[in-house]
Specification:
Number of domains: 2
Oligomer: single chain
Structural class: alpha/beta
CATH architecture of the largest domain: Alpha-Beta Barrel
Shape: elongated
Helix content: 40-55%
Strand order of the largest sheet: 6-11-10-9-8-7
Mean pLDDT: 95
CATH superfamily of the largest domain: Aldolase class I
Strand content: 15-25%
Number of strands: 12
């Protein structure tokens, strides 16, 4: 993302948190005070998007020194970054900065943990995010997934054709929906179809879908669908994605069944934020 676009978003979030300024700091801290502060972890996590955030902070007049880069693991009490600048400014951005980094570190950490679980039982399976992302955070969230070793999946509705149950309910038939998509979509766009039953998976593969998303099924049903496609010589013609109800507790069972991709909103909607703090470590009077 262009630095100025991310800068505008962060400024909007700061304005939401301090619409008329920070009256506490403005009443007790002179405007000419410069400080040095550190952001440190209070638990283990995976660092994400610090380079993007540092660029924005620098553009706001805060000097940043990174002690960890995206993808690094950080442990409790380790310093992630050092900030130098106007005391009022640093205190005004403190909560927005920590909230954002805590959330993104949590996503990267959860993604890495799930990827490692899957690789133990099936190293060929990709772990992907879904489009379930808090509005306004899409770029950073998807980047955090990538940093954690996951696949970003679609960034938006414009990236690929994904025919879901509501599309089929309107069009009336899986094959018809795929036919219409192949007739109108650009050659560059893959066509994916969401199914829950074996017969629809067969129809989708026969109609020329590139990817079949098997949604909301248990591992044994997934295995049966994959086995049936193999028996009909259709398995090698499509990628199989499984989604719906995937958690850290069951992801290994799904991986054992042999899909190509496991996608889950758990990593973007249920990841535990990593606890971080910002501490002033030096005060320099202006």
């Amino acid at each position: 993302m262009a630095e100025y676009l991310l800068r505008d978003k962060i400024l909007e979030w700061i304005k939401e948190d301090a619409p008329l300024g920070d009256i506490t700091s403005e009443n007790i801290i002179p405007d000419n005070i410069e400080v040095k502060a550190i952001v440190k972890a209070k638990e283990r996590g995976v660092v994400a998007c610090v380079e993007d955030i540092a660029q924005v902070l620098e553009s706001l007049g805060v000097t940043v020194k990174l002690f960890k880069k995206s993808g690094d693991e950080v442990r409790s009490e380790e310093v992630v970054m050092e900030l130098k600048g106007n005391a009022r400014k640093i205190l005004m951005i403190e909560r927005v900065l920590l909230n954002l980094l805590s959330y993104l570190f949590g996503i990267a950490t959860t993604t890495k943990d799930l990827v490692e679980k899957v690789r133990k039982v099936n190293p060929k399976v990709k772990v992907a995010a879904t489009r379930k992302v808090i509005p306004g955070l899409r770029y950073l969230v998807k980047k955090a997934v990538l940093i954690g070793g996951g696949d970003t999946h679609r960034l938006s509705l414009s990236d690929a054709v994904l025919i879901k149950d509501n599309h089929i309910a309107i069009v009336g038939d899986v094959k018809k929906a795929i036919h219409e998509a192949k007739k109108r979509a650009s050659f560059i766009h893959k066509i994916e179809v969401e199914v829950e039953r074996i017969d629809d998976a067969i129809k989708a593969a026969e109609a020329g879908a590139d990817i079949i998303m098997v949604d909301n099924v248990d591992p044994s049903t997934l295995a049966e669908i994959i086995r049936t496609l193999k028996d009909k010589k259709l398995r090698d013609k499509v990628l199989i994605e499984v989604s719906g109800g995937i958690t850290p507790e069951n992801i290994e069972e799904y991986a054992k069944m042999g899909p190509d991709i496991i996608s889950t909103s758990y990593i973007t909607m249920k990841a535990k934020p990593i606890d971080l703090s910002l501490d002033i470590v030096e005060v320099v009077k202006g």
